[in-house]
Design a protein that fits this description.
The chain has two helices and 15 strands. With about 230 residues, the protein is mainly beta. The strands form two sheets. Strands 1, 3, 4, 6, 11, 12, 13 and 15 form an eight-stranded antiparallel β-sheet that branches. A seven-stranded antiparallel β-sheet has the order 2-5-14-7-8-9-10, with no helix packed on it.
Length: about 230
Amino acid sequence: MRKISVLFGVIAVLVFVPTSAMAQWSDDFDAYADGTRLDDVGGWFGWDDASAAAGTVSSAQSMSDPHSISVSNTLGNDAVHPFTPLTTGAYRFTAYQFIPSGLDGLTYFILNNVYNHGGPYQWAIEMHMDPASGMVNEQIHDPYGANAVPIVYDAWTEIRVDFDLDLDTVDAYYNGTSIASGTWATPSYPTVEFANVDLYAPHGEPVYYDNLSLVPEPASLLLLGLGVLALRRR
């Protein structure tokens, strides 16, 4: 009985350890100097390794003081952070976005299942924040905006994407509301991997992001704990 109790203790630790302690990756941009162009800095680049596209560290807005990343036509309009591709496991990608009320063009939050400088590329999640309609939708799984929600202006707003590469599922949320769900892979983009985050901002008004993170999903930690238990009981 003592052995089983210890194993359930291991499971409890795996499930209830704060996700920040288990983080695979995070960036709050506070370690960089204000005004730094994130061109091959901290794992950030411009799309296709174009220096002009890399985002800029800014103190104009921040969720965690003193900095965020700013993206626009003048500050770098296509900031990417490639990862060694993940091929298994369940994860949560979180970002906080600040859209000024003066947004003057469509802005995008993208997760790529395939990304390489110069290609090839594939898209798993593509959120559109459209000031013309005032709405946010996820273009790949909901191209007609059936689940679109209003843009939140002038406030830090959570973007969250939960995806399971083993089950090939994804759920995307904006400001706490589900805007898309389905398979991670699609007929147009069939690779079940995660490879990149892309902050695309082809417009003049800056959009800001802060406190980005990629962490294992709590459910996957529970399964890991149950796997430990099963092995020990044999």
